[in-house]
Amino acid sequence: MGEINNDRSNYKFGDKLPKKQQYGKCEFEVDSKNKIAYPKKEIRGDIARIYFYMSNKYNFKISKQEKIMFEKWNQEDPISQWEKTKIKRIEEFISFDSEI
């Protein structure tokens, strides 16, 4: 996990399917030459929703090209039950934390 985060750096995400075996069984590819990271399909919607949240909450800029790709990813990988549970837990934690 740390190796992937380190290799990904702050590279933008790309839409092609990752090559297998760059990180063992983890389906993720980092193209250091072109500074692009390619995540597997099953997590792309999660990534898109995180970027949309950051953009909305913290005025994080997303390029037009990234927005189109993230919208596609959001449609192709809809929100899972786990994501819904996680969001609920975070909201409960934030609500509890603000009461203190």
Provide a concise account of the structure shown.
Helices cover 57% and strands 10% of the residues. It has 100 residues and is mainly alpha-helical.
Q: What does the model show?
A:
The protein is 57% helix and 10% strand. It is mostly helical and 100 residues long. It has a 3-stranded mixed beta sheet with strand order 1-3-2. β2 and β3 form a beta hairpin. α2 packs across α3 (64-76). It is globular, with a radius of gyration of 15 Å.
Mean pLDDT: 90
- Secondary structure category: mainly alpha
Principal-axis shape equals globular
The CA-CA distance between the termini, in Å, is: 34 Å
Assembly context of the chains = single chain
Order of H and E elements: HEEEHHH
How are the strands of the biggest sheet laid out side by side?
A: 1-3-2
- Round the Cα radius of gyration to an integer and report it: 15 Å
Low-confidence stretches: none
Largest sheet: 3 strands, mixed
Provide the β-strand percentage band: 5-15%
* Helix coverage percent: 55-70%
Number of helices: 4
Total beta strand runs: 3
